[in-house]
Amino acid sequence: MRDVLPHVRQWFAEGYGERYGGRFALATVIGTFRSAPRQPGAAMAVSGDGVVVGSVSGGCVESDVYEVALEVIRTGVPAVRRYGVSDEDVFAIGLTCGGVIEVLVEPIDPVSFAEFESVAAAVESGRPVAVATVVTAGDRLGRRIIVEPDRVVGSLGDAGLVAAVVEDAVAMLASGTTAVRQYGARGECRRTDVAVFVQALTPPPRMFVFGAIDFAAAVAQVGKFLGYHVTVCDARAVFTTRARFPEADEVVVDWPHRFLAGVLDQVDSRTALCVLTHDPKFDVPLLELALRTDAGYIGAMGSRRTHNDRLARLRTAGVTEDELARLSSPTGLDLGAGTPEETAISIAAEIIATRNAASARPLSTTTGRIHGGTTYGRAAAGITVG
């Protein structure tokens, strides 16, 4: 939803298009199997006047989804469609990449989705919110609840089911996970009577880039491309300027370790910390703190000699071997990178591989599915429903 939100929020506010009372359709990928071009949460919207924004498959099945969307707009009834490669004709409606995707197409208007504006406002303001929608065929199809850290709005038709979905949704908000979860009709575990698509609309993950050098400008640019909220920090004001880092969301003049100490509440398992200072007076106190955070990726730039000296200094500072094992240094994959831009791609590739627990080997040398996935269990939650 995030990619199409600016467009559809305007449609919702203005009742875009005279046909069907301004209703539009939102098509969302809810499940993928084997190789698939886009992941759960990818969205395409169609207005009553036939305007299209977004994509669910990169072009493979958009034509059919468009027709389904027009029917949903006309009837106001949601639909779920499954698309996959055709054994008889790979150019029939389906995914020529060999994967399978499931798409939820639902009507959006003030009657069918009264909470849409509040969801959109939460996303744009950076507040975490989850939308949990029943995607099993039947009279519950399309029912939804909106889950925020302190409240729940909506109904799924059964209090037990709501409680189970809320429990999962809170855990999925914490991890930034979007997926379908299966339940019994009253929320029982290990049942498959009701499938609920839980879309976690969390703020973008954070990338902190330390060191106002030309490599940092390239890393900031790639970080933005990957969807991170990027902050560049350095103690040297003459180099740490908005003009030098136009892609960054924030440019901060401060000692790196002091700045990081003040934003620890923003560091979680999705966070990438890129230490590009390769100066011990900056990076040793910074890494001493960073290696004790929950950051998912911690990388430090420097030569082999710099790396060995850095490890010795960190050990002297009391950093344990287990903590040092979290450090990617020298940062990046071996791509033969030379320029700042190539180095930034090398670092980004390692961040992606680390995040997905991937091998970082050439796909031509591997077997099995190309697009991986992560499954998260339930976590306890205590929030008010109503």
Which terms would index this structure?
10 helices; 17 strands; Rossmann fold; alpha/beta; 3 domains; six-stranded parallel sheet; about 25% strand; elongated; disordered C terminus; about 375 residues; six-stranded mixed sheet
Structure write-up:
The chain has 386 residues and is of the alpha/beta class. The protein is 30% helix and 23% strand. It is built from ten helices and 17 strands. It has helices spanning 5-14, 62-75, 116-125, 159-175, 214-225, 256-262, 280-290, 304-316, 321-324, 340-355; strands at 24-33, 43-46, 52-54, 79-84, 100-108, 129-134, 144-148, 151-154, 179-183, 194-201, 206-210, 229-234, 250-253, 272-275, 297-300, 327-328, 384-385. The strands form three sheets. Strands 9-10-6-7-8-17 form a six-stranded mixed sheet, sandwiched between helices. Strands 13-12-11-14-15-16 form a six-stranded parallel sheet, sandwiched between helices. Strands 3-2-1-5-4 form a five-stranded antiparallel sheet, with helices on both faces. The longest helix is centred in the middle third of the chain and has 17 residues, at 159-175. The two termini are 24 Å apart.
